[in-house]
Amino acid sequence: MATNPAERRESLVSVFREAQSCTKCSLSDSRTQVVFGSGNADADLLFVGEAPGAEEDRLGVPFVGRSGNLLTTMLAEVGIAREDVFIANTLKCRPPDNRDPLPSEIETCRPWLAEQIRLIEPRVVATLGNFATKLLREDPAGITKVHGVPVERRLGDRTVTLFPLFHPAAALRSTSVADLMRRDIAALARLLDRPEDPGVVE
User: Fold this and answer.
1) Which ranges of 60-200 does DSSP label H, i.e. alpha helix?
2) What is the helix (H) or strand (E) element at residue 6, kind and residue range?
3) The pLDDT of residue 202 is above 50
4) Any idea what the CATH number is for the domain that residue 78 is in?
5) Is residue 198 part of a domain?
C-alpha cells in the first residue's frame, strides 16, 4: 500500500486512468466521459455527492455548475478553499436525464469510491445529499434527519468522521435549506480545526 502523499497521488492517478474505460454498468453507454473527482489528493476533507450532471459530464469535473459554485462559495465563507479538498460522487457517470442513481449502479460504482477514500486518507468525509449519506452511513435515515451530525464510521481499513450535509442543489431551491447548510458547513470547519486524536479507535 502507498505510504506517502506522492505515492498515494500516483496510485490515485492510476485508478483514475483505469476508471476512464470502465464498462461495468450501462451508464458507460450514455456518458460523455467518466467524472472521477478532483481536488487535493492529500486532503483531510473529502466530499461525496450523488452523480455527475450534464455540465460535469461535458467537462469531466464534479460540481462545476450552479450547485458547485454554491458549494465553493459556502466553503470560502468559512475559510475552506476548494483546491484544498477533494470532491467525488457515488457514481462516476451521469445517469440519463439526470435521473436518480439505481441501487445496482451505486453498488457497481462503489469500489471506485472505496479506492479514492483509501488512497486520499481523509480525516472527514462530508456526504452531500441522501444517496451518499445513506451509502456511507449504511443507514436508511434521510438527510433531513441526520444533517450536521458527525458520526465515526469504518470505511475499508480507515475510521473516518462522516459529516452529512444537504446537497447544494437543494439549497439552491430553498433559502431555509441554504441557511441550514451554511450552519452545518460552519460546524464542519470547526470539526476540521480540531487536532487529530491518535488515541481515537473504532
Assistant:
1) 66-77, 103-120, 130-137, 143-146, 168-173, 175-193
2) helix 5-19
3) no
4) 3.40.470.10
5) no
What is the full DSSP assignment across 28-71? GGT-SS----EE-TT-SEEEEES---HHHHHHT-SS-SHHHHHH
pLDDT in tens, 135-161: 999 999 999 999 999 999 999 888 999
> Across the chain, what does the average pLDDT equal?
94
Domain that holds residue 103: 5-193
Q: Residue 62 and residue 68: Cα distance in Å, rounded?
A: 8
Instruction: Let me know if residue 141 belongs to a domain.
Output: yes
Q: With a cut of 80, say whether residue 3 has pLDDT above it.
A: no
Q: Which strands sit side by side in the sheet containing 158-165, from one edge to the other?
A: 38-39, 86-89, 45-49, 124-128, 158-165, 151-155
Say how many domains are in the chain: 1
Q: Which of 121, 103, 9 is nearest to 51 (CA)?
A: 103
Residue of 9, 136, 163, 12 lying closest to 75 (CA atoms): 163
Per residue in 68-106, pLDDT (tens digit) is: 999 999 999 999 999 999 999 999 999 999 999 999 999
Name the nearest CA neighbour of 47 among 80, 95, 4, 21.
80
